[in-house]
Amino acid sequence: MIAVGADHAGVFLKNDIVKLLEKEGYEVKDFGTYSDESCDYPIYAKAVADAVASGLCEKGILVCGTGIGMSMAANKVKGIRAAVCSEAKSAEMTRRHNDANILCLGARMIDEKTAEELVKIFLSTEFEGGKHLRRISMFS
User: Fold this and answer.
1) Residues of the chain with confidence (pLDDT) below 70
2) N or C: which end of the chain has fewer CB within 10 A?
């Protein structure tokens, strides 16, 4: 299951991502928000991060204006490795080398087509392990 969440700036892109995930056959847990009324992104970042850290969801996707705030908030949860990505190579390498478990996107930074590409790359790329496992174990 993939956890998704967004604030008011990212709600429309989040909704597009949910449709893509469902079309691709993923089960989705949508933690909101559900409107473009101003809200506090840390609430949604924590909900998604908790779902991923607990094992309820395999991975997560968070969307806000830049992706940065969501990433900072999600990374406060033990076991979370959230990465902001805006192009394909970063989405690939954050999985290969960092075993990122949450993808953060900026709805004001990228278009829908790019977001869909990044989501597909993030969910299909495997962690390489090896020396990278040793390195990520140093995070905490």
Assistant:
1) none
2) C
